[in-house]
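Journal club side-thread
Mid-discussion, someone asked how the predicted structure for our own chain would compare to the paper's figures. Pasting it here so we can look after the session.
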Amino acid sequence: MSLTNLLLPTYRQMLRTLAGLLAKAQADMPARAEALLSARLADDMLPLAAQIRFALFQAQEAVFRLRGAPVPEWLTAIAAEGRAAETMTGSMADAIGLIDAALSFLDGLTGDVLDDGAGRAITIVLPGGLIFDMTGADYARDWALPQFYFHVVTAYAILRHEGVAIGKAEYVPHMFGYLRPAAQDAA
């Protein structure tokens, strides 16, 4: 499977899932929806607002890294918002708007746009001096997808922990497209 065929559909379907989870939170808890953006699973974890922004950053950052292009300022601004989310959560409308913009960006990509990046050298520099060197294929498998899923799953877990009525079906709604119709009675 090519990187394009792996990453882009995955990012699109899970960002749609994230938007659906936020819409469910707004519908189930209209009076608390905005406050949910400050909710977290543990004191040393970042709040929902950060999880959303980091998921958006991860999905779009991979496109630039795999194409060998610098990450643009508008995208680094989303990551900065995530780091500042403890004091500046934004609103549900902001979060949903950012998801819509990310989906538009990903939907605008055509062809095998990421495939040439499989052998590209990717370096990740983290705070504290940690540096990881890998190929684009390694990056997609071992960094980009796990980081993206971490933030989406954490967002789901925060919403569920806060009482939003969601379950597995709301996390993987795309799976219903594969659902086999019930067998017909032979009577």
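Post-session note: The chain has a mean pLDDT of 94.
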